[in-house]
Amino acid sequence: MKKIISAIGLLTVMALPTVAAEKYGVVNVDYVMSKYPAALQANDAIRRQETEVQKFLLEARKDLEKTPESQRKAKEEKYNKELQTKAMALRQQEEKKGQELFNKFDAAVKAVAKEGGYTLIVPAALYGATDISDLVVKKLTVK
Question: In the chain, is it the N or the C terminus that has fewer CB atoms within a 10 Å radius of its CB?
């Protein structure tokens, strides 16, 4: 999930059409994601899936330890294929959830920027900039 948050942070820098007085804002991506229920749910779902993969690995190892040497190679191949499938599903889930979160986060940042008349929103501290993180959280959680 940290990868998702990092990607969101890197892609957040945006410029809006310049207005007479420039107004800058910052958004703390980690803070927003820690307050956004959909991000927390996505993180939990990914953690559960990771736990299932780890449990699968432990069970496979135990089974392989009990398997006679003559049958071990076939079982190893079977488990490796299953593991690859599970790992691919986990990566796809992370990418899907990450893209969904980014799209919603990006829309919320743009809406707050437009409503507040911000010229530039960046994901890092900027001297003289206004932190809009709470406004983004509010925009994400209000339907």
Answer: C
